[in-house]
Amino acid sequence: MITHGKNIKIFAGNSHPDLAKDIASILGMSVGDSKVSTFSDGEISVDVNETVRGTDVFLVQSTNNPVNDNLMELLIMIDAFKRASAGRITAVMPYYGYARQDRKAKARDPITAKLVADILTAAGADRVLTMDLHAAQIQGYFNIPVDHLLGAPILAKYFIQKGFGEREDVVVVSPDLGSVTRARKFADKLHAPIAIIDKRRPKANVSEIMNIIGDIQDKTVILVDDMIDTAGTITNGANALVKMGAKEVYACCTHAVLSGPAIDRIKESAIKELVMLNTINLTEDKMMDKFKVLSVAPVFAEAIKRIYEDNPVSKLFED
Q1: Are β-strands 127-131 and 88-93 bridged in parallel, bridged antiparallel, or unpaired?
Q2: Sequence-ordered alpha helix ranges (H) in 101-151
Q3: Which residue intervals of 136-291 are DSSP H helices?
Q4: pLDDT one-digit tens code per residue, 235-269
Q5: Which residue positions form the known binding site?
């Protein structure tokens, strides 16, 4: 239980109520009394059934599929709390949707990650707490504080506990050139070398393996990515690694988006085990024996406690 000179309340939208309950439970609290429903024409209705005047409100809502519904729920709830005179509103977004649209890749592209940042601020959010943004520069799209949590320490701890730390036959692999920094930080925790898959992407959600940079012959490899969507990149990478001599392939990610053909691709791939964090609610129909899901509730609970008590969040990730 945390104590302070002001009240604190945790509320949840419909995207991941179980995670909100876990976070509140760790903090010795219960989730606030609110209801988000829809009218017959699809418009979202929000009822907040307890006072939030002067309260430090933390609203837990991932903006995964259905992305637009979950985003609108978040915006409308923020507006409701703002108009109810909440003292401070923190949007707790374990998964930040639209993060891949972070730049103009070609002429006339929108920068939707920036647009989402603007409308969250316009709705009345005073602060954002999120994890593993697809592009770190998205923090700069906001004119309000953003606390950016890291999923890699949770994933690395799991593999260390499995005995993968400081093993000579373990190699951490980046699935593309853009994930090299993430893979290197992960490898440092395991005291392992890294390898890189050099690929090109002819069109969206389609990847083609080109080359493996590094020694993976007869090695146990761990593929590290921030998110798995259609699973083309991670499964093509895993299959290529085995063809090129890897002994066995494990994979891990922070955000298990798992859309379209992802489940079938993973099931048929060379991946022995896929370790994921529960930033997105994984329904029973998507679960399989290959999956291991780790909870982010403890790290979000600690971050919320630190924000509420005006203590630094960065110390969470200091070795």
Answers
A1: parallel
A2: 112-123
A3: 152-161, 180-190, 232-243, 262-268
A4: 999 999 999 999 999 999 999 999 999 999 999 99
A5: 41-43, 100-101, 134, 176, 201, 225, 229-233
Q: Residue 1 falls within a domain, yes or no?
A: no
162 is catalytic: no
* Amino acid in position 39: F
CATH number at residue 214: 3.40.50.2020
Tell me the residue type at 158.
Y
pLDDT above 90 for 95: yes
Binding site for ATP, by residue number, is 41-43, 100-101
Q: Is this structure's pTM higher than 0.70?
A: yes
Q: Which two tokens stand for residue 198?
A: 């050099």
Q: How many domains does the chain have?
A: 2
Strands (E), the chain: 8-12, 34-38, 44-48, 56-60, 88-93, 127-131, 146-149, 170-174, 194-203, 206-213, 220-228, 248-256, 271-277, 291-294
Q: Answer yes or no: is pLDDT of 204 > 80.
A: no
Write out the binding residues for Mg(2+): 134, 176
Whole-angstrom distance, CA of residue 89 vs CA of residue 100: 25
The residue from 199, 203, 272, 286 that is catalytic is 199
266, 189: one domain: yes
Strand-pairing partners, residue 21, are: none
Residue type, 76: I
What is the model's pLDDT at position 6? Answer: 73
DSSP letter string over 144-183? S-EEEE-SHHHHHHHHHHTT-TT-TTEEEEESSGGGHHHH
Structural domain span for residue 47: 8-149+297-316
Res 99 pLDDT > 90: yes
75 token code pair: 């915006």
Indicate if the pLDDT at residue 208 is higher than 70. Answer: no
Q: How confident is the model at residue 185 (pLDDT cuts 50, 70, 90)?
A: very high
